[in-house]
Amino acid sequence: MAVLWSAGEPLPVRAVLDRLNEGRRSPLAYTTVMTVLTRLADKAVLVRRQVGRRYLYEPVADDPAGLAVREVLRDFGELAVARFVDEAQADPALRRRLRALTRNRRADRSG
User: Fold this and answer.
1) Helical packing angle, 30-42 and 13-21, nearest 10°
2) DSSP SS3 for 29
3) What does pTM read for this prediction?
4) Spatial separation of the C-alpha atoms in residues 82 and 97, rounded to whole Å
5) For residues 85-105, b (16+ Cβ closer than 10 Å) or e, as one string?
């Protein structure tokens, strides 16, 4: 995942393999990396898109936290959001952090 997150663009299996094998004593096999990428795509952790005869892979989230949030929302939906709101209302420090994050996000998007 780190290879794909740092790439900033969709990558084919070969590019992922080459980056993973940089500096490794015993290189990983192409089929091993292909199998892992395919399984992650099947689990909706990666998007797999066919371009010509090869597949390109890209993460569905920007980082591990994004993956965790997607999984919780997928598994629990509205209930997860409602619980989070309940927790935020009960914790003044968390409310302050959320306000600050919201302000920062707005500033990032507008500027």
Assistant:
1) 120
2) coil
3) 0.76
4) 18
5) eeeeeeeeeeeeeeeeeeeee
**Which pLDDT score is estimated for 109?**
76
Residues 73 and 106 in one domain: yes
Q: How far apart are CA 52 and CA 109, in angstroms?
A: 35
Reference 12, options 68, 64, 52; nearest CA is 52
Q: In terms of domains, do 44 and 19 share one?
A: yes
* 52 and 16 belong to one structural domain: yes
How far apart, in Å, do the first and last CA atoms of the chain sit? 30
Same domain, 34 and 76: no
Mean pLDDT per 10-residue segment, the chain (111 residues): 95 98 96 98 96 96 93 92 89 90 82 66
